[in-house]
Amino acid sequence: MTLTLEYLGDGRVARWTLTPDGAAREVHEDHHPTLFVGDSAGDLYGRSGGPNPTPPSRDGLSDALRDLWSFLDGQDAVERLGVEAHRQTFRTDARPLLRVDAASIDAVRRVASRTEQFGQPDAYTCYNVDFTRQLRFCLETDTPAAPDRSVRDLRTLHLDLPRHESGIESLPQLAVDGDRVWSSPAETVAGVQAALDERDPDVLVVSTADLVPLLFEAADAYGVDLELGRRDGYTKLAGESTYASYGNVGHSPARYSVPGRAIIDESNSFFYHESGLEGCLDLVERSGLPLQELGWASIGRVLTAMQIREARDRGVLVPWRAWRPELFKRASTLDDADRGGTTFAPDVGVHEDVHELDFASLYPNIIRTRNISPETVRCGCCDTDDVPGLGYSVCDRDGYLPEVLGPLIDARSEIKERIPDAAGDERERLEAASSAIKWILVSCFGYQGFSNAKFGRIECHEAINAYARELLLNAKTALEAAGWRVVHGIVDSIWVTPADGREQRPLEEVAAEISEEAGIELEYECAFEWVAFCPMRNSESGALTRYFGKRRGEDYPETGVGDAVKTRGIEGRQRSTPEWVEAVQSEALRVFDETRSPEAVCDVLRRRLGDLREGTVNPDALVVDNRVSKDPNEYSMETLTVAALKRAQIEGAGLAPGQTVRYVVVDADARGASRVRLEFEEIPRYDAAWYEDGAVRAVESVLAAVGWDEGAIRQYLGETRDETLASF
């Protein structure tokens, strides 16, 4: 069992484990990371059902690999060389490969790069190269990655520094488990050490990992003793970087480790943000990624770790590069395949008595029930027409990807069944585990189309979409035949209402029949008293993902109206929307539910705008939250976000692309950095007209479904006066 690991150099790795009183340290000697190399003829050797070539030379290696042995032998990056038999793909048998034990964890990539440069291009294929360091140790030594919580529960300590603060002099703003009690940097460092000594935490949860070097810098400057870990010092694992993913720019902060304690950086931990420590620990056990690495891992990295474990169980090595190119297709097949899931254009307006049904974990279940996997789709050994509309074959032999996802699907279903009967800490733990698993299942489909996925393959992506399209169309046909009218549908969800003049069969009965036919459960999600589908802006066509509706009270007996109204795509769901605008929209939804009157909703807006114009709205509720995609001087337009970036530079709180800037608009018509104030600055005023526009757009989203656009809203506001008692 593992709390955390340290690479000490010279082939030594220290493993920390939980003890009843703290943690124990065990040093593993002579651990050298291993990679494998095959040559371009590798697929010929041992291919199931393939040709029978000349067997490899007597020492087990081909001539090309023997040449590589001679090249690598004696290099400083290589500890030892050997021969081992492994499978290079899921569809080949084991064959002798060159095993290379690297001198250190950092030498693995050097060996791989030198190998790729030796001989002709693509003459060699490297395997097991880019594992994360702690995952690698656990895999190569068969060490469980999760801490043994049967010994005791994990202890945590939270260190929180306001995001705009930096430098030693800011340390008095540091909070330890929510308490901020020190007046100088030296007192802060001493206070942190006292908290560490008293609580002896296993996990440090920090608002930013930059706190690690900052605290040590302050300790050195003021001569204060500090041990953030269970031994002296810290290690910088990676520097900060900016990256682009699916059109979005992200920022990855620097990463650090300390001996004997795992560090979770809240600014760089998706899973901690979404599912807390319990969700992270659940994924540690499922993925084999130790907590320190899972803390900063992306969804794709965790899914890859699961795939790596399944591949190893099947004796298959993990390629350094994507191993399967896209196969030839006719132009007509490309046209058919290059489509997403099915969507039905929603009927704009308010619909009464609406029911939502969802296919449970549709894409993961398609993968599982249809045996979709990189080595099964268009396998080459089957001549069948399995994938609807595309004609791809799917092999009868069990694919590895369903084996990866099957346990996750079953585990989440079991967890969801247990949640209603659980309470307190147990319910919190189950909800965290369910949330963590959900994100893996959500991403497994898209990852098949990711060019750098270890075992991804675009044909899998296309096949999954093809099955999904057929399933939703079949469900629509069955529901309409049973007397229901489909008012909207998108990929895995479908909304129906009773068709006029027809008798309806019970939805539960129809859904059960569809589920049996599909092999995937069509779940009855909920009933709505009403649902409003919004038009696209400046168009009468329905927006696919902008809607809101009031769920029936018996489904939510303990919640208020705000909780019972489900919203998607409108301003209240957008991260950049200020809290005040979100509150205006929320009240507008409540009044719309009670009255269905556009005039009553506009009266809400008018009262709220009165508060805004009088200057009584708290500026904290007007903060805009936007992610930065470039450096300030790279923008061609002088937007408010650019003004905020320039102001951050002036205030010494500059931001890198991918980070978030938070500001209040004080004068949108001004120029430069004076247009805004950052959230931590004193805010003497705000631009009421700018926030008024935002509030009007939020209310327009509510009323557009009944035909009121921005012009109609402003006309009503200009023609009416407040005659209610609240105005006096």
From TrEMBL:
Keywords: DNA-binding, DNA-directed DNA polymerase, Nucleotidyltransferase, Transferase
EC numbers: 2.7.7.7
Entry's Gene Ontology molecular function annotations: DNA binding; DNA-directed DNA polymerase activity; nucleotide binding
Pfam families attached to this UniProt entry: DNA_pol_B (PF00136)
GO BP, one annotated term: DNA-templated DNA replication
Top-rank taxon: Archaea
Span of domain DNA-directed DNA polymerase family B multifunctional: 310-671
Keyword Transit peptide: no
Keyword Lipid metabolism: no
Reactions catalysed: DNA(n) + a 2'-deoxyribonucleoside 5'-triphosphate = DNA(n+1) + diphosphate
Annotated stretches, region: Disordered: 38-57
Family statement: Belongs to the DNA polymerase type-B family.
Protein name, UniProt field: DNA-directed DNA polymerase
Protein's organism: Halorubrum tropicale
